[in-house]
Design brief:
Helix content is about 20%, strand content about 35%. With about 150 residues, it is of the alpha+beta class. Strands 1, 2, 3, 4, 5 and 8 form a 6-stranded mixed sheet that branches.
Length: about 150
């Protein structure tokens, strides 16, 4: 059975267009990557956990804020490695400040084989991107989410 993750595609109206909130993964492997490295806030669904509850939990862990409102199912998307991401869209609170995110941390041995365990934020930054820019910044397997969001909004 494929690994399942859940996430939120958070959007806002910007003039006559839309923008989406994307997060950049923290840690040394992603530090110098930008294009095709960003993601929506998402993470693994725990055994027995409601999928929407998992999406909300993961967004809170990665952004440091609770996302609430009307969640609309967007779809299921297959990522590299076969993981399935179940996604909901939600219009953002207008005061959601991406410069004030507070991500949870993870621990890993760094540098490799050094015996030293260091902490890194799950997300090192977040940003609002136009739909066109988002398709360049997003991981390849998440790009169809932007097209589906636009279809839902029209």
């Amino acid at each position: 059975m494929a690994i399942r993750s859940a996430g939120l595609l958070i959007y806002r109206r910007a003039s006559e267009n839309y923008e989406v909130l994307l997060v950049h993964p923290g840690g040394p492997y992603w530090a110098k990557k930008d294009e095709a490295a960003w993601s929506i806030p998402k993470g693994l669904v725990e055994p027995g956990e409601d999928v929407l509850a998992a999406a909300k939990r993961e967004a809170a862990e990665e952004l440091g804020v609770t996302i609430d409102g009307i969640f609309r199912p967007l779809g299921e998307y297959r990522q590299s490695g076969g993981k399935i991401v179940v996604v909901w869209s939600i219009e953002a609170d207008p005061v959601l400040d991406v410069n004030a995110i507070r991500s949870s941390e993870f621990h890993m041995e760094w540098p490799p084989r050094s015996g030293q365990v260091r902490s890194f934020p799950e997300v090192d930054r977040a940003g609002w991107f136009s739909l066109a820019d988002a398709t360049l910044k997003l991981l390849k397997g998440q790009r169809p989410m932007v097209v589906d969001l636009l279809t839902h909004l029209e």
